[in-house]
Amino acid sequence: MSEQSDSETVRELGVSTHTYRSSIKDEVIHYATRESIFGHMVMATTNKGVCSVQFADTQDTLLSLLSAEFPYAKLIFTASRDTPELYTWMIELDEHITQGAARPDIPLDIVGTEFQFKVWQFLLTIKEGTVMSYGEVAAHINNPKAVRAVGTACGKNPIGVLIPCHRVMRSDGSLGGYRWGLERKKILLNKERQ
Known about the structure:
Number of helices: 7
Order of helices and strands: HEEEHEHHEHHEH
Shape: globular
Number of domains: 2
Radius of gyration: 16 Å
Oligomer: single chain
Strand order of the largest sheet: 3-2-1-4
């Protein structure tokens, strides 16, 4: 895997929770699925960028997760000919995961609190093959007492792998949690160490 920091590809992560939630009823979200080494993967996009990357054992579970995350949006399954950019991004992400290709430069459009954005932006600076504890992340964002809040922000991360919350562990070296399962977290960390 590359040693470059993901901070080189940081983009504005999105709009405020209030603005996003009030406009989401009119928002169209396109999504596509594919098989990955983690089972099924879904990537969803707005007209501004990727708003969700999720992994699950079944496609039904993925669609339930997506519907729960965007309950008022119009979710549209998209064929590759209709949104070639979405499919290109999915292939690039899969190659990043499986072959160690550079992190793809994909625009993101996510919703979260100011604190969550601060955590997620910091996560983008953690180099592949490196891990940090929740406490170290809290210290780096100048909020050393917010260890649990950092863990919560990692757990609320809607963009698997591209925002690398898998690089954060407990201070005792154990994996901690991972929204998409500890086995997937182990696989990611092992691949990044190679």
